[in-house]
Amino acid sequence: MAKLYFYYSSMNAGKSTTLLQADFNYRERGMQTMLWTALLDDREDAGWINSRIGLKKKAHLFDNATDMLVAISGEHEAATLDCVLIDEAQFLTKDQVFQLALVADQLRIPVLAYGLRTDFQAALFPGSAQLLAIADELVELKAVCECGSKSTMNMRVDEEGNPVLAGQQTAIGGNELYVALCRKHFMEKLNG
């Protein structure tokens, strides 16, 4: 039985690196994969899955209108897929998560989704919430806070490194915009 997996963490835990390693492992064994990332991420190299350690790979793009089941089914008919890997899975819609469950259940293709659990206000992203609710396997990837503890929170910061307390749920950026912290330090900085 194929499964729907959700690999989640705060920022800087190596989600994209882990995804690219899994893709490499499948391909090294002669298997076919299909990679996806969010169209919303419009930074340099849009349409690529990029890791902070320099690995990268071209990927299909999804947005809220993408029917994941239809797109993956079409690819699977053309060349049998052995695994589907999704980066930035927090940006999936609830319906897309259910479509990915059908990919695992009906097409019998494992789906490995990687994403953030929460936003800068400690709220679940819609895609992450649905993945946490229905994924067959949940895997937490670990990142490290400045104190050495496990980081579980994503703090958005301004140019001076001060916490940003309000704004849209999504602002695309990396280390210049976000800091991964443990809950204790996240709360201290918010209330600081």
Record keyword descriptors for this entry.
192 residues, Rossmann fold, six-stranded parallel β-sheet, 5 helices
Task: Explain what the structure shows.
The chain is of the alpha/beta class. It has one domain (about 5-140): Rossmann fold (3-Layer(aba) Sandwich), CATH 3.40.50. Helices cover about 30% and strands about 25% of the residues. The chain has five helices and twelve strands. The strands form four sheets. Strands 5-2-6-7-1-8 form a six-stranded parallel beta sheet, sandwiched between helices. A hairpin with a 5-residue loop joins strand 9 and strand 10. It is elongated and about 55 Å long. The mean pLDDT is about 90.
Brief summary of the model shown:
The protein has a single domain (4-142), classed as P-loop containing nucleotide triphosphate hydrolases (Rossmann fold), CATH 3.40.50. It is 29% helix and 24% strand.
SSE map:
Elements lengths: L3 E6 L5 H14 L4 E6 L9 E3 L5 E3 L1 E3 L5 H11 L4 E4 L7 H12 L5 E6 L9 H9 L2 E4 L2 E2 L5 E2 L1 E4 L21 E4 L1 H9 L1
Parallel strand pairs: 1-7, 1-8, 2-5, 2-6, 6-7
Antiparallel strand pairs: 3-4, 9-10, 11-12
Helix pairs in contact: 2-3, 3-4
* Distinct helical segment count: 5
Order of helices and strands: EHEEEEHEHEHEEEEEH
Percent of residues in helices = 25-40%
CATH superfamily: P-loop containing nucleotide triphosphate hydrolases
Q: In terms of structural class, how would the helical and strand content be classed? A: alpha/beta
Strand tally is: 12
CATH topology: Rossmann fold
Low-confidence stretches: none
Strand order of the largest sheet: 5-2-6-7-1-8
What is the C-level CATH assignment? Answer: Alpha Beta
